[in-house]
């Protein structure tokens, strides 16, 4: 009985190692390399590490950069490792939900946006008047905040355009971080709408059957969702505003 258990454990380990060692399909690997090259401006260090991640898909939190994905398919782990690498090297911007209201300031401080004095840069200034620190915004202030959201996000896009950038998002399932790419117009045209990865979900605890990672227009819905968390927006005001 003990011998059978040992053999079963060895088989499981062997299967896991075989799965981890499966190579990334050539077409998928080239897409990952093209993405890393265009986002990083062909940064030699990034490209060298990206090739290593493709040749040996990452298996640890430190190399994948995302929690709980050690058992995800090799291409997903590799892509997330490349995204984490691009973020760490400053080629992508990752902003956690609890700091999301600082996003316009981060873009401006990094020289990626010029708001030209537009007061809509500061999402907190969408509240008219003074907000009571004890009771929080009134119903009228919340309604004004929601009404001003569209102007706020358009101000961000215009501020980036003044610097010659187009804001794109990496659409990743779940997570507490908004991943942004400040791309040139040419790169935005090339990559917008591109699915970098599609696969079957194999990770326990993720409540969806497939996983897609795409380059999209700014994920303002997610931005709003993060604001509802960071600013404790009451549920009755939390529906995504019309920002078209």
Descriptive keywords:
alpha+beta, 12% strand, 244 residues, five-stranded antiparallel β-sheet
Number of helices: 9
pLDDT under 50 segments (min length 5)? 1-20
Side-by-side strand order of the widest sheet = 1-3-2-5-4
Total beta strands: 5
| Helix content estimate | 40-55%
Q: Determine the structural class based on helices, strands and strand pairing.
A: alpha+beta
- Radius of gyration (Å): 21 Å
Estimate the mean pLDDT confidence: 88
Beginning-to-end CA distance, first to last residue:
65 Å
| Net shape | globular
Tell me the major beta sheet: 5 strands, antiparallel
**Beta-sheet strand percentage?**
5-15%
H-E order: HHHHHEHHEEHEEH
Descriptive overview:
- With 244 residues, the protein is an alpha+beta fold.
- It has helices at 2-21, 26-40, 44-55, 61-64, 74-88, 103-109, 139-161, 185-191, 220-230, and strands spanning 93-96, 166-171, 177-183, 195-200, 210-216.
- Strand 2 (166-171) and strand 3 form a beta hairpin.
- Helix 2 runs antiparallel to helix 3 (44-55) and helix 3 (44-55) packs antiparallel against helix 5.
- The longest helix has 23 residues, at 139-161.
- The model is unreliable at 1-20 (pLDDT under 50).
């Amino acid at each position: 009985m003990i011998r059978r258990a040992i053999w079963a454990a060895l088989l499981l380990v062997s299967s896991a190692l075989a799965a981890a060692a499966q190579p990334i399909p050539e077409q998928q690997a080239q897409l990952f390399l093209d993405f890393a090259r265009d986002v990083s401006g062909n940064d030699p260090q990034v490209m060298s590490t990206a090739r290593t991640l493709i040749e040996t898909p990452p298996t640890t939190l430190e190399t994948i950069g995302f929690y709980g994905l050690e058992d995800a398919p090799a291409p997903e782990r590799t892509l997330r490792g490349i995204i984490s690498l691009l973020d760490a090297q400053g080629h992508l911007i990752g902003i956690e939900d609890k700091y999301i209201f600082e996003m316009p300031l981060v873009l401006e401080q990094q020289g990626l946006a010029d708001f030209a004095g537009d007061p809509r840069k500061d999402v907190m200034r969408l509240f008219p008047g003074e907000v009571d620190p004890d009771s929080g915004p009134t119903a009228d202030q919340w309604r004004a905040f929601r009404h001003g959201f569209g102007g706020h996000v358009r101000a961000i896009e215009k501020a980036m355009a003044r610097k010659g950038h187009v804001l794109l998002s990496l659409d990743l399932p779940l997570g507490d971080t908004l991943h942004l790419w400040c791309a040139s117009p040419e790169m935005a045209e090339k990559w917008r709408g591109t699915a970098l990865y599609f696969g079957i979900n194999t990770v326990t605890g993720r409540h969806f059957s497939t996983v897609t990672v795409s380059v999209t227009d700014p994920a303002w819905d997610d931005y709003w969702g993060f604001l509802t968390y960071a600013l404790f927006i009451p549920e009755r005001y939390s529906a995504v505003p019309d920002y078209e």
